[in-house]
Amino acid sequence: MNQFNFTMPTKFYVGFGQVNVLREIAGEYGKKALLCADSTMGELGFLEKVKNLLKEAGVEVEVIDDVQPNPKDVDIDRQVAYFLEKGCDFTVGLGGGSSMDTAKAVAFLAAQNDGSVRDYVAGGVKSALEEVKQPYPVICITTTAGTGSEATKWFVVTDTVNHDKPGVGHDLLMPSVSIVDPEFMMSLPANVTRSCGIDVLFHAMEAYVAKCANAFTDMAALEALRLVMKYLGRAIENGKEDREAREGMAWANTLGGIVIGEGNSGTVAIHALGHSIGGQTNAPHGLTMCPLAVPYIERTWRADMEKYANLTRVFGYGEDTMSTEELAALCPEAMRGVLKKFGCDLTMKDLGVTEEMIGPMTDSVFHTMGGVLNNSLVEFTREDVIALYKDAM
Amino acid sequence: MNQFNFTMPTKFYVGFGQVNVLREIAGEYGKKALLCADSTMGELGFLEKVKNLLKEAGVEVEVIDDVQPNPKDVDIDRQVAYFLEKGCDFTVGLGGGSSMDTAKAVAFLAAQNDGSVRDYVAGGVKSALEEVKQPYPVICITTTAGTGSEATKWFVVTDTVNHDKPGVGHDLLMPSVSIVDPEFMMSLPANVTRSCGIDVLFHAMEAYVAKCANAFTDMAALEALRLVMKYLGRAIENGKEDREAREGMAWANTLGGIVIGEGNSGTVAIHALGHSIGGQTNAPHGLTMCPLAVPYIERTWRADMEKYANLTRVFGYGEDTMSTEELAALCPEAMRGVLKKFGCDLTMKDLGVTEEMIGPMTDSVFHTMGGVLNNSLVEFTREDVIALYKDAM
Asked: What range(s) does the Alcohol dehydrogenase iron-type/glycerol dehydrogenase GldA domain occupy (chains A, B) (predicted)?
């Protein structure tokens, strides 16, 4: 067992109907909230529902209802100005990763009130995040089972100058409250269920075989993987009816977030390389990891055979009679089977990546995701990254 | 899955050598610490070690080195006065449950600075714990793998007037930092390893079959039980050498604490009735549950056969061919086997309980542990409690 440490300052509310807790608790965080959501939240009636609950808690509500997928630096800066202009006390992120990350970014940057979000990302003048001020409180309400943003100390922003997707991470970026209410997830279309659900799988799987993995994250990662294997197929196929599957995925997602967030394990090269695919193509985040998974496992399974053997088992492959090494060696095939099972057996070409993009994508990996890359059990040079990308085409 | 919520504000440091983190972090909590420990900490050199680390962090140290097992109300009140008189900023609890509970109690009561600890326990004039003030920070350093106090929002105090052991629980009672360094546990004698380790088993087992059990606590409780089954026997037999076993038990203990603490599951009738044995006999806390476990399981296994079947399995009993009901019905026998395996097959008589004590003990259960009792899956009337105690004689 390695030495490790973890903190979880977030208060979690998990289960059907838990959003109603807003009525009781929202008032503790201030008198005026900035509610950040994308346009579908209004169409589905969720925006109205949350707005009303906040009002019942005696909270005045300002709304941003046009959060875009993969939120851009320029939009965040505009939203920070709006938060300050309206004199808000806290933010509420309602939606998927984009809305929750927006809520986290706005609460953080409004408290600093000093420059653009671009100053705080890798390469920016304030990227060391020294002496940052305590952010305004953030309440996350996740409406997808993916990203795990409600349980992490990260937000990701699209850099419109460098065309990459750097992440900003700081202990103070943990949400104050996270509400994981599967009721919001019942109407998610199958393709969103799939791309978010597969992201959960990668959070858990990568964290399990990361350098920073520890006894706490191993426990939660394996539990998340068991839940994904049990429920993701059902949630994709029959998500409008299967409440148990939605609930299982909601919890798996939160566990995945805890593992990469306050459990301090984090993701590895799969996410590092996937982010750059997202920066170039705007493909749904969860899908960007799919082409990379098998080539990654082929390069790494020898580095910790016991763990890769456990992955093979949790993916439902292998026999009791096989040795640890045999099981570990089977892991690439098991991963291939899992991707196929969930309709995620994609190449980078399928996501719109061209050969010409590989150079800039590789630059971006080292520019913005070097720390994540180095969390892999195996070292990846620039040549290794290019080769992995090529295998994934 | 039930709705549930959890928070973990504590920052955990787990693993060999982690106590050295004090050098880096202690200064964040103030300029002067009150270090609470029992006399063995000095004998073992641990008191000196921690004092020096605090000094290296630039912290001045006041010491209480005579914490007694099952700390008394009168002692706590005296220590609170000492904390205030010396102008301390935070407490450090070094030792087992008694030292850590003392640190938590003193930090809490000094901040209130309003009356005796007896006012805050069940039946006391301030027992509703309304409008309590933020306690001074607490750093817990556990030197036993038992009690889990470093991960809970509880302290337990011996009421010298009513001869019971009420607990005081409040969200603000979570330690700021918990250090779980198995190095401190290497020299624990076998009998302490046993009584603390069996307490971990009960925390996890009871929380798993508690009314308030949830997906988060189920995961952590089963993991804790797996670790106890794997490592407790080794830690009892060869604890001076077997570092892996000590580490496994240290982590199991912390998981057990998380489960009953911020995971919000909590213990059940076994702990409720065990506390009253402790109040009457001063027997080691962990052992007080042993006589009660089998009679408790006999009365409850039908209430959730799936969970009791899982307990039977994790205890290493049953066959794959058995039905869930058959496995659940086997749980009392499995529990009996586990207690025997760890040298804990004790009757209440073995702990010094006489027939005459059963009446006052039963009174005390309802006086101080009613909430815990009601967390059981089965209802326990006064007659039920007496009958269970009699079965345990």
From this structure: 9-182
